[in-house]
Design brief:
cell membrane; MetI-like
Length: about 350
């Protein structure tokens, strides 16, 4: 087991290096970098003063450009900057934002509450509804209930989250019909003065529409996966044997089928749990004016805030690789029939 874990950890290193190297190389050729943006701000500022207190009347001279390059570290050769970046990342020093004047770590931590809120609610609501629904569909396979629920979840899956978000805003966010829910932030301005019960209600009131927009499209995958896993187990020989021995259908379903059918879902928990925080949140956060990790990543790419782009990419890639390793280990821990030698093949 430990040799397998060590091999997987060692394989993470070239993967991380590949992702960072490719991104760093692309950044060197992308127009409109931080120096160009600062020069543009200086030219636009004119006599009123540009970025960093510099003043110019007709343009930006070479000395000012050199100062900007030194400020952002672009006065050094690319290879030297690349090696310096890898050294900092090895110490988990993600650097400092060019434009926000904060460390990348502090920016990520400040945005986490929004992403965690949306991610946790999306994850738990999806599984709490989809797993029981998938079991019910498997037991009633081919019935009117099965057909109707399949149609409903597939319609939800076909509707993009941001389209549903716009619809919810129009209907319940004061767009055209009713203003039942707030449009921005996770809490109200007077949240600190509210009682404990008032804070809980206020938080749930703010998070309702973003969570609904995020969760509806997730039902179909987990529901159909649960249904198909149960159907595969129900048709196996051991189920027929258990029924032939006179066991009740309820006992066969919950004692024998349930444990084996949920293996694919259980081992997928780590990936689904982490993925709920970092995927599909950009449009939802933008629609509902929630300042989370998705919006931070998007704004950093637009503004060419390279320390934030590379720092968040490094962190998310590392989390993704670790989550994949945990998922593979869960296969062995949940099902002892699987050996690490099989995972290595």
């Amino acid at each position: 087991m430990w040799s397998y874990i060590l091999k997987r950890i060692l394989l993470m290193i070239p993967t991380l290096l590949g992702v960072l190297t490719l991104t760093f190389a692309v950044i060197q050729f992308v127009p409109g970098g931080p120096v160009e943006q600062a020069v543009h701000d200086l030219r636009r500022g004119g006599e009123q003063g540009g970025a960093f207190g510099m003043r110019t009347h007709t343009g930006v001279d070479a000395q000012q450009v050199a100062q900007l390059k030194a400020l952002y570290g672009f006065d050094k050769p690319p290879l030297e900057r690349y090696v310096s970046m890898l050294g900092k990342f090895a110490r988990f020093d993600l650097g400092e934002s060019y434009f926000r004047h904060q460390s990348v770590w502090s920016l990520i931590v400040s945005k986490l509450p929004v992403s965690i809120s949306i991610g946790l609610w999306t994850f738990f609501i999806t599984y709490l509804i989809s797993v029981p629904l998938g079991i019910a569909k498997a037991v009633r396979n081919g019935s009117k209930f099965d057909v109707a629920t399949s149609l409903i979840v597939l319609i939800g899956f076909a509707i993009p989250g941001f389209v549903l978000g716009v619809l919810l805003l129009v209907l319940f966010g004061g767009g055209t019909f009713w203003q039942l829910f707030p449009l921005r932030n996770l809490t109200s301005d007077n949240w600190a003065t509210l009682s404990l019960g008032g804070k809980i209600v206020d938080y749930l009131w703010h998070i309702t529409l973003p969570v609904v927009a995020s969760v509806v499209g997730s039902f179909a995958v987990i529901t159909m996966l649960t249904k198909n896993a149960f159907l595969d187990e129900i048709r196996k020989q051991y189920v027929l044997t258990a029924r032939a021995k006179g066991l009740s259908e309820r006992r066969v379903l919950w004692k024998h089928v349930f444990r084996n059918a949920l293996l694919p879902l259980i081992v997928g928990f780590p990936g689904a749990f982490i993925g709920a925080f970092f995927t599909g949140s950009l449009l939802i956060e933008t629609l509902f004016s929630l300042d989370g990790l998705g919006l931070l990543s998007y704004e950093s790419v637009v503004r060419r805030d390279y320390p934030v782009v590379l720092g968040t990419l490094y962190l998310f890639t590392l989390i993704g690789l670790a989550t994949k390793l945990i998922s593979d280990l869960c296969y062995v821990w949940v099902d002892p029939r699987i050996q690490f030698e099989q995972l290595e093949r």
